[in-house]
Amino acid sequence: xxNSNSSNSLSSTFYLxxxxxxxxxxxxxxxxxxxxxxxxxxGNCTILHIVRTDPRLHEPMYYFLAMLSLTxxxxxxxxxxxxxxxxxxxxxxxxxxxxxVQMFFIHTFSFTESSVLLAMALDRYIAICHPLRYATILTPxxxxxxxxxxxxxxxIAMIPLLARxxxxxxxxxxxxxxxxxxxxxxxxxxxxxxKFNVVYGLVLITVLWGMDSLGIxxxxxxxxxxxxxxxxxxxxxxxxxxxxxxxCAVLILxxxxxxxxxxxxxxxxxxxxIHIFMAHIYLLVPPVLNPVIYSVKTKQxxxxxxxxxxxxxxxxxxx
Length: 319
Known about the structure:
- By secondary structure, this protein is mostly helical.
- It is built from 11 helices and 2 strands, in the order αβααβαααααααα.
- The protein is globular and about 65 Å long.
- Belongs to the G-protein coupled receptor 1 family.
């Protein structure tokens, strides 16, 4: 019986949803989405290029920023193809196995981004509270280990959750609520005991996000304690200013993430537009805004971008 259910699930076709009630405007709605994706991809690729090519940015803070850009792209890119397939009326169908792979990347990189933000908080703590030991503590080797550990932690944690999906019979509607696959969206369509997935999903969110957010909070408690010990007003402002971009990045990720989770858990019967709106904010806002914030607030990144475009301009003039 389990083999039959598994076979049926793996061969199932699910149907993605665009913007309900606005199907005739999907082509127009796709324009701002396309622009947002382009801004996000270009912004993150620019930061990755600058960090890689500018020797002045070969420091722990900018290595973590490059990790943030990679996780942003990893979280948003898997949704792009299916979103535009729906909005451009190419196809609403998605196979079960493709759906599972898509949700694996979305959720894995979402948890990984949270871990990267924790690593960035620790980076700021060491830079402000232990500046003389900064370079010796955060070596490139340690930074690489932190990045790999963050990715493996998130990926391994998702395996038990997704491994059970092929064994669920989906005898209800196969219509998903979004233009991409989310675990909490698919699990509601299963006509089987999904208690493990529901409980495990809640525990996963609570433990991973809880540990990361607690670590970030504790880091900033120590940072504020250290900053308040600085004698000069200008020194305090300068120290806090180095944390401004990171605080914005934390809020940009956690606020939509918590909002989407609360809506799925406690507002299941609310308007579908609210669910769709929150889901798109959750996946699109961090990749778009993080490069903008770091470009505006971080002098070295801003100078790197200006240097990059000036070089291109000079090269085109010479040619």
